[in-house]
């Protein structure tokens, strides 16, 4: 009987080897398994599900925020786009408005939403003027959380969480305003902040570089962690790539929704005393750099940091407040005061 015990599996194994050996070219037990097809499987699933990507824009009136949104949609991004819809209004001192475009390229669908926040910091008393913005951000976390803790939860939860917040800095050439510092300090703990220098065509290249340098120094002095945050670099490769980006920040952008004829091509630009500043020309300003950073290189990471760090922090606090025991009711209309 010892043979029966050892023999059966042995025979089965030999049979299996033979079968593998005869099936397909060169397949052995240690041969091709097909793990690399996981990437293709993931790609297919992701393509079907589509993406949500939500950018928020903050800064005081007149800094060119709405123009930059239009620029974003009029530039390469929206040459793929088709149609738009959706609007979100909060009747408060700050009116927050979300505009969505569904963009499709190479079979991949992305719903790009830009949340514009007009009027930030325009009041005489700007104390706590970031409250409506932080409320909006937290409301989106709350919405997601409610969907997540639902017993019959959706297969795919619609994601309205703010994946990044572009903070517009006035091109004064001097320094950051107290309000800039306060805002970024408060909000960098709840959302990915990306500071940008607005209307950079109003500065000379030297002024611009000096200002960028000064802003970086000030952010460092005040301990403001903007995206991509040092502490979330995954490995050396990540760190090297992100170091380069951090050294180039804040991006000095120019927005425009007007087209000009340059060398026989129609380009988005602004007419200045020196000629036409081409918005999408990396030699003229850093709009294209910002756009590529947001969409081509860091979109997935922005979403991951939002989910794994910012949302996780919110979720942990919220469930803790709840005693960590009872799920939040889906019909619970009470708002979080976090
Ligand atoms: P918002 O209040 O921040 O939304 O600013 P708007 O987008 O409404 O722009 C305010 C004004 O600034 C408009 O007259 C724009 O044409 C102008 N503007 C927008 N972007 C730029 C820019 O990059 N450079 C310059 N020089 N002017 C700009
Ligand atoms: Mg505006």
From TrEMBL:
Its main location: cytoplasm. It holds the Pfam family Septin. GO terms for cellular component: cytoplasm. Residues 49-321 form the Septin-type G domain. Keywords: Cytoplasm, GTP-binding, Nucleotide-binding. SUPFAM superfamilies: P-loop containing nucleoside triphosphate hydrolases. CDD domains: CDC_Septin. It is found in: Cytoplasm. GO terms for molecular function: GTP binding. Belongs to the TRAFAC class TrmE-Era-EngA-EngB-Septin-like GTPase superfamily. Septin GTPase family. This is Neuronal-specific septin-3. It comes from Oncorhynchus kisutch (Coho salmon).
């Amino acid at each position: 009987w010892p043979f029966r015990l050892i023999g059966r599996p042995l025979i089965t194994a030999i049979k299996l080897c033979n079968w593998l050996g005869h099936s397909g070219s060169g397949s052995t037990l240690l041969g091709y398994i097909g793990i690399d097809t996981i990437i293709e499987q993931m790609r297919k699933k992701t393509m079907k599900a589509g993406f949500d990507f939500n950018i928020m824009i903050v800064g005081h009136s007149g800094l060119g925020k709405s123009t930059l949104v239009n620029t974003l949609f009029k530039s390469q991004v929206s040459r793929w786009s088709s149609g738009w819809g959706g609007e979100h209004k909060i009747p408060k001192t700050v009116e927050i408005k979300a505009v969505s475009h569904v963009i499709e390229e190479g079979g991949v669908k992305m719903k790009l939403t830009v949340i514009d926040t007009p009027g930030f910091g325009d009041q005489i008393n700007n104390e706590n003027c970031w409250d409506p913005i932080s409320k909006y951000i937290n409301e989106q976390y709350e919405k997601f959380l409610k969907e997540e803790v639902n017993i019959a939860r959706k297969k795919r939860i619609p994601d309205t969480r703010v994946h990044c917040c572009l903070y517009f800095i006035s091109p004064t050439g001097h320094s950051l305003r107290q309000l800039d510092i306060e805002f970024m300090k408060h909000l960098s703990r709840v959302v990915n902040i990306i500071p940008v220098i607005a209307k950079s065509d109003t500065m000379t290249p030297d002024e611009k570089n000096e200002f960028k340098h000064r802003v970086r120094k000030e952010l460092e002095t005040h301990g403001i962690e903007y995206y991509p945050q040092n502490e979330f670099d995954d490995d050396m490769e990540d760190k090297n790539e992100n170091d380069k980006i951090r050294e180039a920040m804040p991006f000095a952008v120019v927005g425009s929704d007007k087209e000009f004829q340059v060398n026989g091509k129609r380009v988005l630009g602004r007419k200045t005393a020196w000629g036409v500043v081409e918005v999408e020309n990396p030699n003229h300003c850093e709009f294209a750099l910002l756009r590529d950073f947001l969409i081509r290189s860091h979109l997935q990471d922005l979403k991951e940091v939002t989910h794994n760090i910012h949302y996780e922090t919110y979720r942990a606090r919220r469930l803790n407040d709840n005693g960590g025991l009872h799920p939040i009711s889906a019909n619970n209309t009470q708002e979080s005061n976090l």
